[in-house]
Specification:
Blueprint: E1 5-10, E2 14-21, E3 26-27, H1 32-36, E4 52-53, E5 56-61, H2 86-96
Antiparallel strand pairs: 1-2, 2-5, 3-4
Length: 102
């Protein structure tokens, strides 16, 4: 949904950003704006399913060398997940300086 908070996590590095979605997820193949951009990468899965892009307003970002990590913090190898782990949410909201809400 628009206005959803997201935390960016790099596997084996840590959390590197907090942002807010500014629009709905957009199918890459059905959006002229995204298709017209000079993007490098494969935006279609092996099974033919397209990627979806979500516009984000980044509130704070960190270099990977300054990533937030620690024992007991939630981490997932999935590309997206709903972060419900209270300890991790409290830690990240404090460190990134954003309000805590569950």
């Amino acid at each position: 949904p628009i206005g959803a908070r997201i935390f960016a996590y790099i596997p084996k590095e840590g959390y590197v950003g907090v942002g807010e979605t500014t629009g709905l997820a957009v199918n890459y193949l059905e959006n002229d704006y995204w298709r017209s951009q000079s993007l490098s990468g494969n935006y279609t899965h092996d099974n033919g399913e397209p990627e979806f892009f979500v516009p984000v307003k980044w509130l704070k970002t960190l270099q990977p060398s300054d990533a937030l990590y620690g024992n007991g913090l939630f981490a997932s190898q999935n590309s997206t997940c709903k972060l419900r782990h209270t300890k991790t949410l409290k830690y990240l909201t404090e460190k990134f300086g954003v309000p805590f809400f569950e």
